[in-house]
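debug: dumping io for the single-chain case to check the tokenizer round-trip. Nothing else runs in this session.
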Amino acid sequence: MNAEILSVGTELLLGHVVNTDTAYVARALSSIGINVHYTATVGDNPQRLQRAVEESLSRCDLLVTTGGLGPTEDDLTKETVARAAGVPLAMNETCLQELLRYFAGRYCGENQKKQAVLPVGCTVLKNDCGSAPGCLFRSRQGALVVMLPGPPGELIPMLENYALPALAGQQEKAVILSRNLRVFGLGEGLTAEKLEDLLRGSNPTAATYALDNECFVRVTARAAQESEALAMMQPLMEKIRARLGNYLYTEEYASLEETVVQGLMRQKKTLATAESCTGGLLSQRLTAISGSSEIFEMGAVTYANRIKEQVLGVCSQTLREKGAVSYETACQMAQGIRQKAGSDLGIGITGIAGPGGGTPEKPVGRVYIALSDGAHTWVRCMPGGIGRTRSRAFYRQAASSHALDMVRRYLTGLPVLEDLEFPRAAGIPVSSPCPQKEKNS
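debug: decoded output
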């Protein structure tokens, strides 16, 4: 069964409300083997909505609409969709009585009562969390139509408890199973090049998607049962693993920070962070994960050189001769915070996030990220200054992600300084070992 999702509401078009309904409905339909081919958003305009519905019904097996079932004048979804589908509306007495019970002791005017007007012969989808019922019916074009309310707190229980079971009985049993193989250190373009021939399949399929400073490969299969779909996916996933190697960091929905926190917890290791240009972003990402209290000792935001010296023990000569943005300073920041916290690992980040402050020798985007375990210290360098300058937020996010990736590699026994897909700055290596070894305290 091929489906389309049509979200209704001018507030969605204007960006006043973020449309999370489409994503949720698409995932739910996929879980019962229904393919979603198109999604669209239409404002509260009956003419445009009717054209959109008619177009969808001409090509899909299932149309799901969200929003526009309430009591106000701009809630026109039922009337418009029913007209386009060629199905008359009538007061549903059972729904009306449910509505009157819902408003018991409160005013229930004609606007409220119109919520009980539904397509004739439809299957009513009960609203356990609100007043507007949904419905399922078949259009004159032959497609099934499901109408759901817009508020997620009403849509989600209605979809899960009533719509999905009803739809499952309308089609051959199937599941659509996906696995996300998340990648750090390769851009989406290079990832796609490495997997070019593997991205052409039909079932299972593989496709690349970009995220902030990373990407993922989604492998999807459709089969009668989940175990069968997984068996179909395994050979393709094995080939992807072989080609992406150490750049692949998880096969679930987990983020880099979740992967690192879980890895530290498994190994019972602790971590502390010293940040300059990232301003505590790395600490924030780590502590947003449940269980981080077991592994995170402390985070210090050390912007001023004086604080780098006093709190972290960075050598004044290093700051004077090499500067705050240098791999020597990053080394000493990582070593200093590890000693200060008494943690197993320490991270130091220093750089120029911009938009100002850059020089030809140290351009905007130059960031040094150091990791120390008490015996050795490793440093990565984000070169910066190559091509288009990115935003301050981009460099901060990228630097914190590189720090997490370094910890992830350390915990899994991978080379911490494996070359990444960086453009190289003249005379500046992408990743450098620190010449110093930390003295035993």
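debug: round-trip ok. Residues 21 and 152 are 6 Å apart (CA to CA).
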